[in-house]
Design goal:
Elements: H1 9-22, H2 30-42, H3 50-53, E1 54-57, E2 60-63, H4 65-74, E3 78-84, E4 88-95, E5 99-106, H5 107-112, H6 119-123, H7 125-141, H8 152-155, H9 197-202, H10 206-215, H11 229-235, H12 240-255
Antiparallel strand pairs: 1-2, 3-4, 4-5
């Protein structure tokens, strides 16, 4: 961690209070702001960076898509844009540690996932598609820069969560905010695991997988493959190649 990033916990608490009072970036309480600052400090970033990099949506912390892309590029990643319109956004993501992958999102895919009719998708289609491309591309090629975070545009499409008095975030244990003030070096953070077997295998094929699962009565209209997680864990875990072959065969027959 860079010494310029070390900020005493007392100073972070003061900054958290000021950020909460400002009402900016979706932060409603000092506990929420402090939890984000702890995450930033653990990443070697100045706690004040939460104001530019993070946003809280429906009680969840999210990493702005521009910040995702900036971190990806700072870590050695490259991106080449192919389409950037209200109908389709696509790009190729390349990283020395993760290879190269092209990601495409269009409004047909968004509608298939039950997203295209939402207000934010109708009003800002290009921005929503771009955020999805960035989040999926970075997460698939080099997820280490995300620490389990999603983009605000993705979080807006999640269902509501029950508030517990502390912000619920995937990248950190928010209970750290209630612990006695530690030295910055002693801050401990629990980070989310790497993308699951299914997230890696289904990348770019979500629509095909979901069509197959609906055919098998495991999904209803508007649900995504993540809603069939129990079925996938019980029947597919460890047998993903065979499952994807069945998905391909089904979709070929459906199109015939």
């Amino acid at each position: 961690m860079n010494n310029t990033q070390l900020v005493p916990i007392g100073d972070m608490q003061t900054m958290a209070g000021a950020l909460a009072k400002s009402g900016l970036f979706g932060v409603k309480t000092s506990d929420q702001a402090l939890a984000l600052m702890i995450v930033a400090a653990a990443e070697g970033r100045h706690p004040g960076s939460v104001a530019s990099d993070y946003h809280i949506i429906q009680g969840r912390a999210s990493l702005k898509s521009d910040a995702m892309l900036a971190r990806f590029q700072q870590s050695g990643g490259r991106i080449e844009w192919h389409d950037h319109s209200n109908e389709k956004v696509s790009a190729t993501f390349t990283h020395p540690a993760g290879g190269s992958l092209r990601i495409d999102w269009d409004m047909a895919r968004a509608k298939s996932a039950g997203l295209g009719t939402k207000d934010n998708w109708r009003q800002y289609p290009r921005q929503m598609l771009r955020a999805r491309v960035i989040s999926e591309g970075v997460r698939a090629v080099y997820p280490a820069v995300l620490n389990g975070m999603y983009a605000p545009e993705e979080v807006q499409d999640f269902g509501p969560i029950r508030s517990t008095g502390y912000i619920q975030i995937e990248a950190a244990n928010a209970e750290l905010a209630a612990l006695p003030a530690p030295e910055p070096e002693a801050i401990s953070v629990e980070v989310s695991p790497a993308p699951s077997e299914f997230e890696q295998a289904f990348s770019g094929r979500e629509a095909e997988v979901e069509a197959f699962l609906r055919h098998r009565k495991q999904l209803t209209e508007g649900q995504t493959w993540r809603d069939a997680s129990e079925y996938l864990e019980a029947r597919v875990a460890g047998k993903v190649p065979a499952f994807l072959k069945a998905v391909s065969d089904f979709n070929k027959e459906a199109k015939a």
